[in-house]
Design a protein that fits this description.
- The complex is a heterodimer of chains A (about 300) and B (about 240).
- Chain A contains 10 helices and 4 strands, in the order ααβαβααβαβαααα.
- Chain A is α+β, with helices and mostly antiparallel strands.
- Chain A folds into 2 domains: about 200 residues, no CATH class; about 80 residues, no CATH class.
- Chain A has a 4-stranded antiparallel β-sheet with strand order 2-3-1-4.
- The longest helix of chain A has about 45 residues.
- The mean pLDDT of chain A is about 85.
- Chain B is α/β, with parallel strands linked by helices.
- Chain B is globular.
- Chain B is about 30% helix and about 25% strand.
- Chain B is built from 7 helices and 10 strands.
- In chain B, α6 links the parallel β7 and β8.
- In chain B, the strands form 2 sheets. Chain B has a 6-stranded mixed β-sheet, with helices on both faces.
- Classes of the chains: A alpha+beta (about 300), B alpha/beta (about 240).
- At the A-B interface, α8 of A face α2 and α3 of B.
Amino acid sequence: MIKALQTLWRQISRDSDRALLPADSRQVRPLTIVVSIMCALGCLAGLGASAGFRAANTWTSDLKSAMSVVVQNPRTDEDLGRAALIVGRVQGVTRSEAMSRERAKELLRNYGTDMGGTLDALPVPRLIEVGVTAGQTNVKTDIEKALKAAGYNVVVDDHSRFTGEVLRTSTVVRIVAILALVALVVAAITTIGFAARAALETRREAVSILHLVGAKDSFVAREVQIRFLRLGFVAGLLGANAAGVIALIGSTVFAFGASDFTSGTPLLNWTDLWILLVAPLVTACASAVAADLAARETLRDLV
Amino acid sequence: MNEKTRTPAYREGGPIVRFDKVGVTYGSGTQALRNVSFELESGGFYFLTGPSGAGKSTLLKLMYLALRPSQGRANLFGVDVGSASRDALPMLRRKIGVVFQDFRLLPHLSVFDNVAMPFRVRDVPKADYAEDVDDLLRWVGLGGRIDALPETLSGGEQQRVAIARAVVGKPSLLIADEPTGNVDPEMGARIIRLFIELHKLGATVVIATHDLDLVRRSGAPVLRLEAGELTQAPSLGSAPKATR
């Protein structure tokens, strides 16, 4: 095992001009560009999935830790305040605050409709903003029971409708990103395989000489594999760097254009760095495996 | 030469090459060889002659395992090459050294690396063969050109590189296709002397040549091909045997 690793290292680290099957520079440059673009797109898909997952988590967590209680026809602001006090005593409630009439109007205005003076004439819903401990069950029912017992007629909104939509949307985003990643990996492997076959066809005479001096198929395949391992690593580095720059620009633009809803969830996170760090290694390994398989298949056709 | 690269030549008794009614038909339908039967003794020295197009190259290809027979049985080192698995061929090929008529050097590799190729495909560390390769290149008169690329060499020099590559691994069977065709008489004589030295070490040598004078002078047994058929084959015991 150690000997095999030493041999592999010797082959990887040796001067490329001593390679028994040298790369064709006319093929290497365009192939490196194609693979690096695929790698960059793959990284962006990965970063997109990660950002989507994080955003969905933050949003659902925010939604799950808050409820709104609509109190039907409270007689006075004090009456609403009493209801808020009752809610505050329910187990699992961390915060309970009666919303002023003015703030409720502001919320309606935030929907963007210029209603002018009409808004003052409308019956504004009287709300209690409630903070709950995440993961606490039955809070909604307990609030309803407590307020009903005190003679209030209420509707408790636990945002479950929005949570479900956010989760569904984030799942779709993640599935699309993963499918895109898989498609890119398949495309990259197919491209590398095709290039490896072409490389062997181009060097058919050299391959024939290597065979005649006693080279095994595995040796010839290894020569091709090592070349594509290097190419994959270089393309992976280029692609990951490009994806990093694009993501950084995207994240900056996103941050500048953030709304109240999105400002708490940065697009990029330091933990995403692993995607960019792993990408060159994954690209190198995928290239090497694809090249090895293609080379062995091509060599089987020779004597 | 150090111990690691000094591979013992094939010394087992019996024929090293045995062809029994071997035929080769190419994809185009051309029958290059018909019903060829002969045996080459281990440690023998043979010439292969015949007019152009007689099938010499095809016969040599069968012997250096670039081709498998279409008909009959070809046996090398006790292995039926017609039915041998693909994985078995490299080990057989490592016992064979070939000097191609068109040299078949790798143009991107230096003289040294071309000659060292049989070691490199076996993953022998450079330290174990570098001295042998240097010695051999000096012997064939290319000691000062080890870093040169083949395209910068003359035809004769390229041929010497090809010969060095064929013999550097101390093959049990040495096959040469017109090895003296592109060199001056003095170098031709040196090359033949090298083959004789290898033969003395126990290698079986087969030289394809049009030089009938060389064949007559050597007194070695001859395989003669005409129109794909063997018209003259050596009888067992006729070949000069290695003295060591």
